[in-house]
Amino acid sequence: KSKPLWKQREFGMHFMMPLVKDGHLFGFAGRNPPDTEFKCVNLATGELVWTKDYRWQIDGQVEGLFRGSLLQAGKRVFALGEDGILAEIEITPEGTKEIQRARLFTAREAWTLPSLHRGLLYVVQNGTDPGTGKKARVICYDLRGK
Fold this sequence. Notes:
The chain has a domain at 9-106: Thrombin, subunit H (Beta Barrel). The chain is mainly β. Helices cover 0% and strands 48% of the residues.
């Protein structure tokens, strides 16, 4: 009969995709954008190791990754925020660091997990971008380099 090893109430995930790496669980916890944070939990003990708030002030607006999803590609880790920001981040049990970020589009509910195949990153824009008028679509980015 199986039984829980531990329970962690501070790591409540709504629907975001976490990532297991180096004996730790990394992910965006929280139900709504105001209460979301990026967290790290020790898999063996369930102990909350650290918390990071991935938000920025841009042109007077608060932007961030909020309810983001994670994707590991080799040694690289990508986080797709729910409104179209893609960030490459470094994650370790000691902390997290932003490597680079870009706004791919401005549309709410980008909740579909990005996928990577043979160096091509596929991202789903689930809603219409109010700035460009572009409707829901799949966008492919070439990360293979030259």
